[in-house]
Amino acid sequence: MNKGLFITFEGADGCGKTTQMNLLKDYLIQNGYEVVLTREPGAKGLGEQLREILLNYDGEVADRCESFLFLADRAQNIETIVIPSIKQGKIVLCDRHIDSTVAYQGYGRGLDLDEINYLNNIATGGIKPDLTYVFDVDVETSAKRVGDEKDRMESAGKEFFNRVRNGYLELAQKEPKRIKVIDSTRSIEEVFQDVIKEFRK
Ligand code: TMP
Prior knowledge:
Layout: E1 5-11, H1 17-30, E2 35-39, H2 46-56, H3 63-87, E3 91-95, H4 98-108, H5 113-124, E4 131-136, H6 139-146, H7 158-174, E5 179-183, H8 188-200
Parallel strand pairs: 1-3, 1-4, 2-3, 4-5
Bound molecules: thymidine-5'-phosphate (TMP).
The site of thymidine-5'-phosphate has 12 residues, from helix 4.
């Protein structure tokens, strides 16, 4: 099935992953590849409505409910966008995926990691990214980049984001072949050079 490539972009809010994803998209298109961009939550249609709830609902949201909404969006993204595109030989670039749920709902909210891995596996049908970038920035830098206008997830506080960051770094240690950590406190150009280097590898 795996004719194309599946690459995911991860990191705390304000880490610069979306900028890097767009730069890689332009680079790949210039080099003759067919590229599909998607994101979690909220690639299109139903996903966009789930994103609206997840980021902007202002009542109580139970941690497990939050996880299931992210997972529901993931199942939709994988089945309607990722798998068909990979089958057509395209390179799929996805802004956030399974590791976000491990980092945010697992390390951040404190839900059981084995349970999250199990549920992630159900949501994706067992498909895993070929390559994952984690754009690493300290909590102060990411808070500065996000600014004062925060959505529901971005309002979680410094301790939460410290746990999220550590979660990503631990994940990268567990899966060093798939997950590449990139120091994203540097300039956009410097970070992008590392993005290309890892892609070429
Ligand atoms: P972003 O699209 O701006 O990166 O925002 C998505 C937000 O949702 C971000 O704060 C991370 C959060 N998130 C989770 O908590 N769990 C998940 O599984 C995913 C995909 C995102």
